[in-house]
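Entry: Heterokaryon incompatibility protein-domain-containing protein
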Amino acid sequence: MRFFLASLFSPRSGNDGETELKTLRKEVQKSMEQNCTEHKRFFPAGRVEQLLTINRIRAVLSSDPSDDLVTFVSQYARRIFLALVCGDASVKDLVCLMRSCQEHGMIDDKLPVQPMSCIGRGDTGKCFPEHEPCLNVFHDSKWEDVMFRFRDDQCIFAPPVFSDQKFRYDLTAECILPFTSRGSGERDGHFSTVSEVILHQDHFVTEWKEGRGDNAQLRRVASQEPLRVALKKMKHLNEPGYNVRSAWEHEVLALNEIRNLRHPHLIFPLAAIKHGLEHYIMFEWADGGSLRDVWKLEDEDAKCLTPERVMCVVEQLLGIAGALAALHNTNTKTRTGLATRAPSLLPVASTSQAPVREPPRQQMLQIPRIRVQRESSDDDDESRRNSDIDQSYVSEDLDPESEVHWRHGDLKPDNILRFIGPLGRSWLGTLKIADLGLAKQHFLQTSRRNEQTQQRYTTSQYEAPEAMANLHSPRSRRYDIWSMGCIIFEFVIVLLYGTDGLDAFYGERKPGQVSTDTLYFTLDIENDTADVSHIVKHWMKAILRDPECSRPEGSAISDLIMLVRDRLLIVGLPEEHMTEKEKKDCRADAIEVQKLLERIRRSALDKGEKYLLASPTRYHTPVPPQSIAQWVAAKTEGGRYLRAPGSQAPRRELILHAAFLVRLTVWAPLDKTWNYPVDNDFAEEFFRDRPYNTSVFPRENRAVALCKNCARLNTWTSSSWTMRVGQATLNCRLHDLVLRECPMRSGTSESTVEIRRVESKLFVGGLSRPILSLLRSPRRSSMSETALSDIQIGFPNLQQVRDPMYFALLSRWLQDCNTNHPQCGRRKVWQSPRSPAQALLPTRLIDVGQLSPNGEKESEAVRLVETATFNGPEPLTNASYIALSHPWGMGSHNDHFCTTRQNLVSRIEHGMAVASLPDTLQDAVTITRALGVRYLWIDTICIIQGPDGDFNTEARLMETVFSFAYCVIAASRASGTSSGFLSPRRSPEFIALNTSINPRSTVLYITSHLDDFQSDVIDGPLNKRGWVLQERALARRTIYFTASQTYFECGAGVRCETLAKMTNNQASFLGDPAFPTVALKSSKGAKIRLYEILYKTYSALQFTKIWDRPIAIAGLEQRLVWAFNTHGGYGVFDGQFFGRSLLWKRDEKAEKNDGMKMIDFPVGDRRYYYVPSWSWMAYEGLIDFLDVPFDGVEWQHSDEEGVLSPWRQRADLNGEVDTIRGDAVWHTGKANEKTVLRAVGRQLAVPLEEAETRIVYDGGKGAGRGMGEVGVVVVGRQKTANKQSADVRALQHYVLVVGREEGDGTAYRRLGVARMPGSWIDQETGSGKRISVV
């Protein structure tokens, strides 16, 4: 024992120290964790003391085991020590380096150390620029060899530790965030992305003080397990008026104050993180989703509606009302109330010293975005009489006599989050108010957000009537009360009628209706009134007649509806001139709502379960019938007042803006909102060595007559201005141009129009499409470059087609893409694991010849060549070619100029005179030659047409034809092969401003808006052809020749002939040069929505031969199958997308789509054209997809239940269920495989007539009644938390409806789809039978 103790504490030899050092290095490496956001390694904080004990330090420093050095390292410099251990330092070097740290006072708290930029020392010996004295350690020569490595390694051992007592963290870019993995949840908004990540348990601590006074000690306890947190990352957007740091600072200020409320129904933010140039806010993860998600998972069965559930709803609504009351009644005469107006006031660390006696419970998250707003005149003025505003915190634009108050401003079911917790004490959990970052930052984003939403429940649906006021008007805190009324109303509908009832309510809104009306209120502009909508009044009456709500003794649900009717959905707001009695008839405030909900809760406790729920069952309770809504036509006259019926007009004028015509469009398509970033680098490069004259940039097009106000207007510095337009201003050129381009001009009557400039585009009101463009010439001027930096250099006039400047621009587009867009290069074209790596040439190409040295064409003839047997002077390997996308047009009006077996040899040996080509094909030759490309592909010439042709073979190769083309040219304006696409275009109207006698001065232009890629291309006639969707998606880049102008699309966006640039996130899906790379980078939910949009869009396209419908998208489908790493075909994917993609349905909303018609495929071409009944490709007509909640369905894909895919069956036979093999993958057009779905069929437990209320038949209403037998195949059923105790009859089922012809045995065909309760399906053991769906 004596020997053992002596050896333990005696100095070790240097060799022992080196051995210990190597062992320590290995253990350090094993103990590191991987960061998920940047894929860097870090060392968890809790393992520092565990791994680096005093004895371990002494053992490593065996050559100098003095106690003072060991003590210094163990108490102050463990992390520095570990960072040096990770390097190549020997024990001797380690001792010297740590001694140096001890001498200079360099400790762990100083990490991470930034690179120093000392350029010398003054007479006093201090460095210039100065730094902390402890950093002089790095001037020591001992650090020269290790400093570079140390700067990198130090960050591994200095990841931040977050505390519940500190909110803001300013971290360097090198700092490693301790997030170990990503969860499945992610939401992408315009300004931010919210991701679910896992925070390492050592890096979140709870702090509190024990003891009092000087004896108080700070205690820190780390989390016991990893934390699921929501990480909100702010986006860097190139938009005027938006700065990511300012936006983050403002939000951090507000959230820091909200933390102090600590209300159980308000989300508690954990940390605000500035990480280099990135900005984050961290919250704990809401494990139950949003209130919207709760509603989606609800079914209609009475077993879901119990007294306990009604009581839960009442209690949670009471909590939400209490949270609003806490927000609305915060003391606002302090920094709290003025938080968002003073971004520099917040300290880096929270100064709150409130003691915490025990570690608080974990609070769960997601994202509040509460803003400070100026008070309206609707609230009491008690606080105004107690003014104590610190004037040093009042911004210049804030009236010191006015008040500011907290309000939410964007309250809706999506922003109320559900927290279940580990115990799951109630089905509803705890509801908390949050905001997922969707709050608008400025005018443009407001219009964009609501233009591109596709949901039936938009933000505007929950807006109060006063939202129709001037955009700059203050909004009342009672704005939130209206939103609260909408939420309670919809919650009652869900309780009584389930999600089908809510869908029926949403269905009252007309699809695509552009109106100032919403589901909840209508505006009568002529009579200056607003009122609760006819729809809501109808539903309220119907609900109050429901047996549950019509009892004389009353009920909780009826009291909730009457609360909404009588106190929440009230248009009138209190005003100063009103009497107290009149004010009581106005909309309630949050405190009153809280009191009334508390009264309902007390009644429930006193009266018992009968008050909460009377009927023990609500089977087959009908949804209220739809109302006959009266839609008020939208008008845009200015200067109207908004008031409740019967009330006096407010003193303040509320100008109705056209913005809301767009903001209230409920079902606006996802892909119609475009951004117009200024990009002058391309324009300046284009004009650098290219001469131009006044014909290109005219100094004036005629005498510019402007009114006095317009003449004084500086359009290049003004961000917005108003114009009074009408008869009196028609002599002003600018007014005239605005009236001509404004979509809601009102003839001779006068109205106020608000013009807003966003960079180089001018918008009217809130419309998302610009009406005018602001351009400038490339000349420099006396104006500052800053003033012109956000104005696009552009052509006020379009160039003449065939003009050298025009062709030069087309070539420059391609050169710029070749140089600056590596993602668009041929080598970046999508390659599947089963396709060849080299570029593939089409079977045939057209040789258009070369240019002679003098610039003239070699020949007026072109020649068809076969690439496999070509014996020309130059090899065709990797030859560049242009591909033409064009309409054929009717044969009676167009010469299709087809290649047939009869003329093939002649076209190869003798060629074709260019003059003999129809105009569209001639123009394609002209463009190909102008771009300096020798080869051209045109389907009519390069594919042998006719019954003995090779179309069926070539059609399956379209993927490679368009993928490997140097560029695709799209004849968007052509109506057929004989119409051409290089005809003259109408030039835009424009006004030349800032003209000067100086020829070098910059000229500014206001022009009519031409840059409309959506209308000209995406919604244009060419894109209505079925084949073109695939051609656009597979092309690396495309030049579109439209009637308005020419566009260029590649992976970097869209360029216009005017020199403008356009971008759009949804359009980038099809514009992706390596389709579908954009989809692969998306979440699972985004992938689903993208392929659904793709197939829905495709189903609406037109075909000359409808039986081409399956094959014209085969190339796209093949890409998706490979990209998703799965099997698939006929519009259906195997694996994680199988169930959803099977549940397509006939588009019930489409006009003339009462029933889809099965396609009559050509007899004898079954090898190419056979399509099974379970595929939408077998039918003619528009499709949609059944609304299936994300992560809310348990899919039934086993042999014992549900349906098996044909791909999975084949993989089973090969013993490779989960392995994708090249010969096991097939797709549409490769139909030599089985196309049978093996399934378990079940009979209906209710009459077919009743089931048909839920069935969407492919062939239209009643399509199943002529079948010999109709049954269902269960594809999926509603998920439930407890599978063992769940009653399958109470769960929603997602089914295929199938039918069998008389005498067909087990062969069934698909008839439609349905969502129905399990009680409607015979699910007794042994009741199902195996069938084949063909």
